[in-house]
Amino acid sequence: MNIILNNTPETIDGKEISIAQLLILKNFIFKMLVIKVNEQIVKKQDYETTIVKDGDNVVVLHLVSGG
Amino acid sequence: MLLESLKGKTVGIAGCGGLGSNCAIALARIGIGKLIIADFDIIVQSNLNRQYFFIDQLGMYKVDALQTNIKRVNTDVIVEKHCLKLSTDNITQLFKNCDVIVEAFDLAEMKKMLIETVLTEMPEKFIISGSGMAGWGNNNTIKTINYEKLYICGDLTTEISENTPPLAPRVGIVANMQANQVVEILLNKQNQ
Prior knowledge:
The complex is a heterodimer.
Chain A: E1 2-5, E2 8-11, E3 16-18, H1 19-25, E4 33-37, E5 40-42, E6 51-53, E7 57-62
Parallel strand pairs in A: 1-7
Antiparallel strand pairs in A: 1-2, 3-6, 4-5, 4-7
Chain B: E1 10-14, H1 18-29, E2 34-38, H2 62-73, E3 78-82, H3 91-94, E4 100-103, H4 108-121, E5 126-130, E6 143-147, E7 150-154, H5 168-191
Parallel strand pairs in B: 1-2, 1-4, 2-3, 4-5, 5-7
Antiparallel strand pairs in B: 6-7
């Protein structure tokens, strides 16, 4: 399937993938993430149950301390 | 002149440390109409390596000192100050009349909390966040990325640590990039 991940087109094996699986696949190892799927915020407790499908627009933002 | 329209605009500044104090002063200098500033902290010596405060302001609440400094730059700016800790309970109410909200916290979990709250509860608002500005050098790693109404300024990777403290040059760059993005959004809105 084809998705947009952080403004970049990506091809992922299979027809769907959970956010939790996507984070492992794409090696997002940091803790403090803001995740949006099709403009909807996905909370941490929903990473396992939120499913990404063909055509979805996914944003994974890694926030670091400092300011 | 186009800049005149900034007089009618309100910007929320969430946090008055390195990012918030410098961003607020930049916006005050160019004639923003109103700033809503929020922070619960007082000024300590270690803040002076990057934050827009002075030695004689040590011990003051940041919102009080920042209001004074804004007025010393531009008496026309209306300052609404809130000396409190921002949370999911008060963000929506505090910033409801802002055209743009600037995320200016130091801690990543607070950045996350503000971004998620604004994108969920106030999806019509623009939010400009800062992430990754510790240490020194590496000018060209600092950039702005944009996802719909969310903008992130910084290098997105350099976290504060013993070897990479937050310092005036890079924090100032990001604070001013945030201010620059605010102006771009406000003036583009004006044109539409």
